[in-house]
Write a structure and sequence with these properties.
The chain is mainly alpha-helical. It has 15 helices and no strands. It is 73% helix and 0% strand.
């Protein structure tokens, strides 16, 4: 039976959580409202949750390049799905190997993994390696491979989960029954690792979706524009806006450029960039919680 103190505690906890949830959602709400606000009104009166003048001019400016944006959306979905799947496979296999410290050489490999988190060759050496040795410039691999090879932190997370959250007795029993290591990994370890796999997969997917630096480094307008992701396109639009603003006086004769909604179009760009994540995240969160519920070892 629930006591009066328990009910009061639960009510206060829900109230506090509701406040923090609203604080997290309010910036996104303001972002969306500003994107539909008239540019001149926003410049004169500042950003407000209750603007007096609404306008679609920011989205109209972006819609001129909608064909390019649509292709970039498709490329972003492709690279996010492919990159996340490959990263999870590589991360879990690598983590499973180094979690067996009794195997000779695994401790040294773990040291090399941690070493890459502390030291790296820098941007110049990385760029030279990918462009001159691996020849990924202006190819699909330019937006896939660099992020795929930088998951040392995720590997350590998964390794610790394998090592400390999954009982060794399960693997030992499977070996006694004649199961191979690959079968143990696929049939025992992975089903019990849904929470950490979901966590790593979600972080990797968000990293791929929000990545624009690989496109800036390894893709050019002439040879690799067909591989531009949505973040690269939106970043280019934002840079074009800055250039037009800096040369507004020279472009005063061209009214469409001089009256461009520079303030609100940035908000519209942000809305377009995060909208798919906001829409899809609740569905992934449901499976993430389900993975946590089913991931424990049953007695």
């Amino acid at each position: 039976m629930k006591t009066r103190e328990y009910k009061i505690t639960q009510t206060l906890a829900h109230f506090v959580c509701g406040i923090f949830s609203a604080m997290a959602l309010l910036p996104f709400l303001l972002l969306i409202i500003i994107s539909f606000t008239e540019n001149e009104w926003a410049l004169n009166n500042g950003y407000s949750y209750f603007p007096q003048k609404f306008s679609l001019e920011a989205y109209h400016y972006i819609s001129v390049q909608w064909e390019q944006i649509g292709r970039a959306y498709l490329m972003t979905f492709i690279v996010t799905i492919a990159g996340t799947a490959l990263s999870v496979i590589i991360t879990t296999l690598f983590a499973y190997g180094i979690s067996h410290t009794e195997i000779p050489g695994m401790k040294f490999i773990s040291f090399l993994l941690i070493f890459t988190m502390l030291f790296n060759g820098g941007l110049v050496a990385t760029y030279y390696s990918y462009v001159r040795l691996f020849h990924i410039k202006n190819t699909f691999f330019a937006i896939l491979v660099p992020s795929l090879m930088m998951g040392a932190f995720n590997v350590i997370l998964v390794r610790n989960y394998f090592k400390f959250s999954i009982p060794d007795s399960l693997s030992e029993a499977a070996r006694i029954d004649g199961a191979s290591e690959f079968r143990i990994f696929c049939r025992i370890v992975m089903p019990l690792s849904k929470p950490i796999v979901a966590t790593v997969g979600l972080m990797t997917a968000l990293a791929y979706w929000n990545d624009w630096m690989n496109g800036m480094y390894y893709l050019s307008e002439r040879g690799g524009s067909q591989y531009f992701t949505i973040q690269v396109i939106l970043n280019n639009i934002n840079e074009n806006i800055q250039v037009l603003q800096q040369n507004a006086s020279k472009l005063s004769a061209a009214g469409s450029f001089a009256k461009m909604p520079a303030a609100t179009v940035r908000m519209a760009i942000a809305v377009i960039g995060i909208l798919p994540i906001i829409v899809l995240y609740p569905y992934f969160q449901k499976y993430f919680i389900k993975g946590i519920t089913l991931g424990g070892v049953k007695e």
